[in-house]
Design a protein that fits this description.
Shape of chain B: globular
Strand order of the largest sheet of chain A: 3-16-15-10-9-8-7-4
Distance between the termini of chain A: 33 Å
Number of strands of chain A: 16
Number of helices of chain B: 5
Distance between the termini of chain B: 41 Å
CATH architecture of the largest domain in chain B: 3-Layer(aba) Sandwich
Radius of gyration of chain B: 19 Å
CATH architecture of chain A: Alpha-Beta Barrel
Helix content of chain A: 25-40%
Number of strands of chain B: 16
Low-confidence stretches of chain B: none
Radius of gyration of chain A: 18 Å
Structural class of chain A: alpha/beta
Structural class of chain B: alpha/beta
Strand content of chain B: 25-35%
Oligomer: heterodimer
Largest interface: A-B, 56 and 42 residues
Number of domains of chain B: 3
Largest sheet of chain B: 7 strands, antiparallel
Strand content of chain A: 15-25%
CATH superfamily of the largest domain in chain B: Nucleotide-binding domain of ferredoxin-NADP reductase (FNR) module
Number of domains of chain A: 1
Number of helices of chain A: 9
CATH topology of the largest domain in chain B: Rossmann fold
CATH class of the largest domain in chain B: Alpha Beta
Bound molecules: flavin-adenine dinucleotide, flavin mononucleotide, FE2/S2 (inorganic) cluster
Shape of chain A: globular
Helix content of chain B: 10-25%
Order of helices and strands of chain B: EEEEEEHEEHEHEEHEHEEEE
Low-confidence stretches of chain A: none
Chain lengths: ~325, ~290
């Protein structure tokens, strides 16, 4: 048996498997397929201040080994989430990582503050989704600008109890992800989540028009896994002490292991849940077996391992 | 009480048979059948375990049998339309297929015996047969209207004759029955059968037109919609459409969990594919995904 315990900052998890924001709603639907307490953590759908209808349909298009989505952060708003979903998740024995989003610095601060008001123990960590367009700055996405990213993270960090770790969720759609990562850590992020979806587009060759009502959308699924591995690798190399929640195209235990070897201290399964609702527990089992077969006694020893052998062989 | 809620099982194809323009597929899916109620659907993984097609394909349940010769089975009727449905149509006996189901909110059945008209468009007739059984078990009168583009796209005309008071058939090209749309014949059927409730499944345009006719005739409508779905289980939010709640508020509602069956008048048909400005949470500030 491999010791699977891990941590993301001060959040200690019994194992490294989590859901990904937006791919597990707030847990209820998946709990029909496996007990949520078996996961290291449940990462909830990004919640904003007010209820949101999201975008028009069609909101998705299947692509090779992936999909595009333009959901538009549909959700009930943070107050309903804190009142209904958090206590339910806590009663299930789930460790909840709450994903928050905002269109302005102030919205990040207010949403974080509302989450901070949740009953003690119901929030394991807060993930700050900075892939939102900044309404105050020409719609420029927070995650694409180090100053804006840092400001959003700082707003959330200040509003939250210092005992609750803050993870900044980075977008791969930037020239230098290490710069953004540094800015977020400088602003108080205790860890990083990588990666959010990659901006993409599909044109329907029947209608000769964009397939999504929102024109562009986020690409996810195994198609983006190499991008996730690369981002995790680069950031772990630059900031080896900063814990990373790896996300992007994980379908099997070996996929998860790649992210871990690149430097992820925990791994989320996103789009693949649509294919296999029990994927999170299956991937956990497969990851355990893969570690055991490779002689690891503790999961944490595998975190960033690929860097180690790389340095030894090529230094 | 019978177990409820969806399960995920590794199923197996028992048979694939051509029926007109469609394929009738029987799947062994242990544990699913006893949970099925009329209007439920299943979501199937396509292409095998390492397929590059990640999203599940949803199908109405035509029949579910708890105790077939091989165990619990679920039958679907599918139109080979794109790569996923073509893959399913090409399956051979014993091929494994991962099944999640039963999913969705089934048809609401009347408490007291009522006169029910069942309307199917194309393969949309598939879920109506088990519904007819359930309605007849409650002492309801059942009349059936089946419509399609052409004769080969009608499903279950003979089945329908066995289970109903009357069957009316329409085809767009006149290859069988009345030439035209199901809505052309509905007023006459409503009058003849003194219809209380119309149950319908088929293309969205048909459901829209039918909901309007039903409302005009004071007939309650229960319609099973078909929106593009990525997960089928309620976690992705791709399958939404604008629906008015009992409180009068419009929300973008998931058709896989709150549906696929809705009251006809609760769906804002003219606004499907948009977010109406008076919808809860609209208009949205730009962007985000
Ligand atoms: C509740 C429900 C019941 C259905 N019942 C039946 C049935 O009984 N028989 C039948 O033949 N078909 C049925 N459909 C439609 C069927 O799901 C689609 O035709 C099928 O998913 C198309 O897959 P594809 O790979 O052939 O096409 P593609 O267009 O390549 O599919 C790409 C993606 O879009 C989704 N998609 C495309 N068209 C539809 C659609 N019309 N509805 C939902 N998702 C879609 C697919 O699931 C897939 O994720 C039903 C759909 C729903 C939502
Ligand atoms: C339908 C859908 C909705 C998503 N919603 C969110 C969201 O609300 N917040 C967020 O931070 N990421 C969201 N994501 C991104 C995922 O959390 C994840 O970062 C991305 O999909 C890559 O992982 P995957 O390849 O395992 O899906 C969403 C992804 C999908 C497919
Ligand atoms: S199909 Fe995923 S929420 Fe309905």
């Amino acid at each position: 048996m491999v010791d699977l315990r891990t941590s993301l900052g001060s959040a200690v998890l019994p194992n490294p498997l989590a859901t990904a924001s937006g791919c597990a709603a707030n847990g209820r639907e998946l709990s029909r397929f496996f007990p949520l307490s078996e996961l290291g953590a449940v990462v909830t759908k990004s919640v904003m201040l007010a209820p949101r209808s999201g975008r028009a349909t069609p909101r998705m298009a299947e692509t090779p080994s992936g999909m595009l989505n333009s959901i538009g952060l549909q959700g009930p708003g943070v107050d309903a989430f804190v009142e209904h979903d958090l206590p339910w998740l806590q009663a299930q024995g789930a460790r909840t990582i709450v994903s928050i989003a905002g269109g302005s610095i102030d919205e990040y601060a207010v949403v974080a503050d509302r989450v901070n008001g949740a009953p003690p123990g119901s929030v394991a960590a807060v993930e700050v989704n900075i892939s939102c367009p900044n309404v105050e700055d020409r719609g420029l996405v927070f995650a694409c600008d180090p100053m804006a990213a840092a400001a959003a993270v700082q707003a959330a960090r200040r509003a939250l109890d210092p005992a609750i770790p803050v993870l900044a969720k980075l977008s791969p759609d930037v020239t230098d992800i290490v710069t953004i990562a540094r800015a977020c850590v400088g602003a108080g992020a205790d860890g990083l989540t990588m990666i959010n979806t990659v901006l993409g587009m599909v044109i329907d060759t029947g209608t000769l028009r964009p397939a999504l009502a929102g024109v562009t959308g986020g690409l996810s699924g195994p198609a983006i896994r190499p991008v996730a591995v690369r981002c995790i690798w680069q950031v772990h190399a630059a900031l080896p002490d900063v814990p990373i929640l790896g996300v992007g195209g994980v379908r099997t235990g070996l996929d998860a292991l790649q992210l871990v070897l690149a430097g992820a201290s925990a791994v989320s399964v996103g789009t693949v849940v649509f294919n296999d609702p029990s994927a999170p527990v299956r991937v956990l089992r497969e990851l355990h077996d893969a570690l055991e077969e490779r002689g690891f006694e503790r999961f944490v020893d595998a975190v960033g391992y690929a860097h180690r052998s790389f340095e030894q062989e090529y230094a | 009480m019978a177990p409820s809620g969806p399960i995920q099982v590794r199923g197996e194809v028992l048979s694939v048979r051509r029926v007109g323009a469609y394929f009738h597929v029987t799947l062994l899916a242990q544990g699913v059948a006893e949970r099925v109620r009329p209007g439920h659907f299943v979501a199937l993984a396509v292409g095998g375990e390492s397929s590059s097609m990640l999203l599940r394909r949803s199908f109405s349940i035509y029949r579910a049998q708890e105790r077939g010769v091989y165990g619990g089975t679920v039958e679907i009727v599918l139109a080979a339309h794109g790569p996923g449905t073509s893959w399913l149509a090409g399956c051979r006996p014993h091929d494994p297929v991962d099944v999640v189901g039963p999913l969705g909110t089934p048809f609401a059945l009347p408490k007291d015996p009522a006169s029910c008209t069942l309307v199917g468009g194309g393969y949309g007739s598939a879920p109506l047969f088990s519904l007819a059984d359930a309605l007849r078990a409650r002492g309801c009168r059942v009349d059936v209207v089946l419509g399609a583009g052409s004769e080969d796209r009608l499903f279950g005309v003979l089945d329908a004759k066995r289970i109903s008071q009357s069957v009316t058939v329409t085809t767009d090209d006149g290859s069988l029955g009345h030439r035209g749309r199901v809505t052309d014949v509905l007023p006459a059927v409503f009058a003849r059968a003194d219809t209380d409730v119309v149950y319908a499944c088929g293309p969205m345009a048909m459901l829209r037109a039918l909901s309007e006719v039903a409302a005009a005739h004071g007939v309650a409508a229960q319609v099973a919609v078909e929106e593009a779905m990525a997960c089928g289980i309620g976690v992705c939010m791709t399958c939404v459409l604008p629906v008015v709640g009992d409180d009068g508020v419009t929300r973008m509602v998931r058709s896989c969990t709150e549906g696929p069956v809705f009251r006809g008048e609760s769906v804002r048909w003219a606004d499907v594919g948009t977010v109406p400005p008076d919808c809860l949470g609209a208009p949205l500030p730009a962007g985000g995904h």
